[in-house]
């Protein structure tokens, strides 16, 4: 395991999952540490300790020190952070060869409800959030369910201004490693 430095269990869980992802681990070890950034270099050391050390845990103190200096200046090991936010920030600081194995592509299709309008927007993604209260299959269907932008939440188009639209999301390319976050709550102004 990894040493918890206070409230770093969210970070430790991602680092351990990455360490035991064979494709990621092999790609990480193939990096030339003299030509890679310091965060990737420290990550190599943490993963190597997990894999090769006889100790019951690996220390993340040097990694977290580097993370605070170069990756995430407001990092405080005594403050709990969101695991997926950490994952996305970490990916942003890794070389493209490592990042691409977690990158898929999704397409958002916007269609006007009262006007003849259609727009397709393609974008990369590194994780998908699905509701925890459903089956996995139902949760994945919710990713592509239709979202309505109407009333006070209209879509702004260049051609028509603010219009009512429906939006449907389709995954067109899955990443080699598909990361799913279970949606733990819904934000509501009423509650």
Structural description of this entry:
With 191 residues, the protein is of the alpha+beta class. 36% of the residues lie in helices and 23% in strands. The chain is built from seven helices and eight strands. The strands form three sheets. The protein has a four-stranded antiparallel β-sheet with strand order 2-1-7-4, with no helix packed on it. It has a two-stranded parallel sheet with strand order 3-8. It has a two-stranded antiparallel sheet with strand order 5-6. β5 (155-157) and β6 form a beta hairpin. α1 packs across α3 and α3 (38-52) runs antiparallel to α4 (61-71). The protein is elongated, with a radius of gyration of 20 Å. The two termini are 38 Å apart.
Continuous helix count: 7
Could you give the distance between the termini? Answer: 38 Å
Task: Give the overall silhouette.
Answer: elongated
Q: Which blocks of ≥5 consecutive residues have pLDDT under 50?
A: none
**Average of per-residue pLDDT values:** 89
Fraction of residues in H or I helices: 25-40%
Q: The biggest beta sheet, please?
A: 4 strands, antiparallel
Tell me the Rg in angstroms. 20 Å
Instruction: Tell how many strands the DSSP assignment holds.
Output: 8
Overall SS class = alpha+beta
Strand order of the largest sheet: 2-1-7-4
Helices and strands, in order, run as HHHHHHEEEHEEEEE
């Amino acid at each position: 395991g990894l040493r918890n430095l206070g409230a770093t269990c969210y970070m430790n869980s991602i680092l351990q999952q990455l360490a035991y992802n064979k494709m990621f681990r092999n790609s990480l070890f193939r990096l030339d540490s003299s030509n890679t950034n310091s965060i990737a270099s420290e990550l190599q050391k943490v993963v190597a300790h997990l894999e090769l050390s006889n100790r019951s845990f690996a220390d993340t103190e040097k990694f977290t020190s580097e993370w605070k200096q170069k990756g995430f200046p407001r990092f405080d090991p005594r403050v709990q952070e969101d695991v997926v936010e950490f994952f996305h920030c970490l990916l942003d600081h890794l070389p493209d060869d490592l990042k691409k194995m977690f990158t898929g592509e999704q397409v958002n299709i916007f269609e006007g409800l009262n006007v003849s309008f259609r727009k397709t927007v393609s974008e990369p993604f590194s994780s998908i959030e699905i509701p925890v209260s459903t089956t996995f299959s139902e949760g994945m269907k919710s990713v592509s369910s239709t979202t309505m932008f109407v009333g006070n939440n209209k879509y702004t188009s260049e051609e028509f201004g603010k219009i009512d639209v429906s939006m449907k999301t389709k995954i067109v390319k899955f990443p080699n490693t598909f990361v799913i976050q279970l949606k733990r709550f819904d934000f509501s102004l009423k509650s």
